[in-house]
Amino acid sequence: MAYRNRFGPLGHRWIEPNGIQLIVSHFPENRYSITVSFTDGTPDMPLSKCTGYERNLDTLTIRFKDANGRRDPDPFVWEITGKLDSTFFIYSTPPDINPVTFFFNRCKTSMYPQTENEDPGTVLSLRKEARAKFANYVHMSGIDDRAGSGDSLTIPVNCFTGEGRTNLLRFLANVDKDGIQVFVDVRFDRATVDQLQRLDTDMEFGDLGEVLDIADSAEQSQH
After folding, report:
1. Reading across the β-sheet that carries 76-79, which strands appear in turn?
2. In a shared domain, residues 99 and 126
3. Can you name the residues that pair with 34 across neighbouring β-strands?
4. What's the gap between Cα 209 and its chain centre?
5. 85 and 142: one domain?
6. 3-state secondary structure labels for all residues of the chain
7. How far apart are alpha carbons 162 and 66 in whole angstroms?
8. Long-range contacts of 110-119, Cβ-Cβ distance < 8 Å, separation of 24 or more
9. Structural domain boundaries enclosing 79
10. Per residue in 32-42, is it b (16+ CB within 10 Å) or e — as a string?
11. 161 Cβ neighbours under 8 A, 6+ residues apart
12. Distance from C-alpha of 98 to C-alpha of 78, rounded to nearest angstrom
């Protein structure tokens, strides 16, 4: 279903000028190509060149530009079925059809300057392979090892062996350099009172030890 915008010639806009600027600001032209296509044979038009009065609209397509100039094989495509609310488009669409989330999940943002427009099948294959090897690398039980999945991995750290913890620390040491995003989920809601009290004691003694070290260093510097 497309949007004819029949009253465009009478001044009705399918998108407001500030809406165009909002989208372009989130997807700057040095990194993304934003085009509008039509159902009547009109050539595709850059969104930044649109007035909002265009008719017979089909889709809004956002493509990631890489340093090699390769065409994005997996662009974000939005079917235009009515007046486009750019604020909703950017901030409120569900995650699976949100353009910001779409490119973030594909590492196609300024956070990942070395991203290229690789074939999506190749990327998924590499993710599956790396995920399977990682599960074996950390040597632990209780791992979420869904076969053939390239998704993120849930790691129950409490199940680690000593060797597994060491391997995980080696992996985390390279996270910043390799760009793999890792979240640590500390579940205080799954601890017993006894566990929480022991943790509290450990942290207090840790703080006390730090204070004593600082005091000792200050005393030695005075002599």
Report:
1. 45-46, 32-38, 57-64, 76-79
2. no
3. 62
4. 40
5. no
6. CCECCCCHHHCCCCCCHHHHHHHHHHCCCCCEEEEEEECCCCCCEEHHHCCCCCCCEEEEEEEECCCCCCCCCCCEEEECCCCCCHHHHHHCCCHHHCHHHHHHHCCCCCCCCCCCCCCHHHHHHHHHHHHHHHHHHCCECCCCCCCCCCCCCCCCHHHECHHHHHHHHHHHHCHHHHCCCCCCCCCHHHCCHHHHHHHHHHHHHHHHHHHHHHHHHHHHHHC
7. 42
8. 110/31, 111/179, 112/179, 115/64, 115/66, 116/66, 116/67, 116/68, 116/70, 117/64, 117/66, 117/68, 117/70, 117/71, 117/72, 117/73, 117/74, 118/73, 119/73
9. 8-105
10. bbbbbbbeeee
11. 139, 140
12. 10
Domain count, the chain: 3
Q: Are residues 150 and 200 in the same domain?
A: no
Amino acid at 113: P
Two tokens at 149?
Answer: 């999945």
d(CA 49, CA 215): 66
Match 């600027």 to its residue by tokens: 21
Q: Which pLDDT tens digits describe the chain residue by residue (223 residues)?
A: 689 998 888 899 999 999 999 999 999 999 999 999 999 999 999 999 999 999 999 999 999 999 899 999 999 999 999 999 999 999 988 888 999 999 998 989 988 888 999 999 998 888 888 888 887 777 766 566 555 566 777 777 777 777 878 888 888 887 766 667 788 888 889 889 998 888 888 877 766 566 556 656 666 666 5
**68 in any annotated domain:** yes
